[in-house]
Amino acid sequence: MELVPLGPGFGVEVKGVTMLDVATDADAYKAVREAFETHSLLVFRDQPIADDIQVAYSRAFGPLELTKVASLGANSFYSRLTNVGQNGEIVPQTDRQVLVAKANALWHTDSSFKKTPALASVLTARVLPGEDGDTEFTSTRLAWERLPADLQDRLKTAVATHSYANSRDQIHPDLANAEERKALPPVRWRLNWRNPVNDRRALYVASHAYAIDGMDDRDARQMLAELLDEATRREFVYTHKWRTGDAVMWDNRAMLHRGRPWDYGKERSMVRTTISATVADGLNEVKPPVVH
Question: How far apart are CA 45 and CA 210, in angstroms?
Answer without folding.
Answer: 36
